[in-house]
Amino acid sequence: MIGHAKAGGAGWAIMLADLALILFIVTASYAGGGKSSDASNLDPIPQAIYRASPDAPPIADWIAAQGLGKGARLQITMGYDPAHPETAMSAAAALAAQAVAAGAVPRIVLQPDGGQPSAVLAYDG
């Protein structure tokens, strides 16, 4: 018989409490347990944004002013004309070289939209 003889038929309550505790423990172990396998593919939240323009400082100076810390991630996004992708690739390579000289190893993204070059500095959690 489940429960205690003096419990007066309250054995079902003890079993229900045990099952509730087990359910809580299992749920808690999955609720915030670790990062999912797709977490590394998500873009982190930007902390600083650089837009290349005639009056903007060089990207190396901008990176130095941000003070790269642990977990810093730099993404350079460059729009390009599909008829002339080599122009955007050489411009992205030049920005990447300046970023590397400033101590940041960037991820380069080329998008076929012809938009302004930009850089986003974010930190991984």
Question: How does this structure look, described?
Answer:
The chain is an alpha+beta fold. It folds into two domains: 1-34, no CATH class; 39-123. It contains three helices and four strands, in the order αβαβαββ. The radius of gyration is 27 Å and the shape is elongated. The mean pLDDT is 79.
The averaged pLDDT comes out at 79
Q: Rough shape?
A: elongated
Strand content: 15-25%
Largest beta-sheet characterization: 4 strands, mixed
Q: What is the spatial order of strands in the main beta sheet? A: 1-4-2-3
Overall number of strands: 4
N-to-C span:
52 Å
Residues in helices, as a percent range? 25-40%
Indicate the low-confidence ranges by residue numbers: none
User: Assembly state here?
Assistant: single chain
Number of helices: 3
User: Structural class, from secondary structure content?
Assistant: alpha+beta
The helix-strand sequence is: HEHEHEE
What is the radius of gyration computed over CA atoms, rounded to a whole number of angstroms?
27 Å
Number of domains: 2
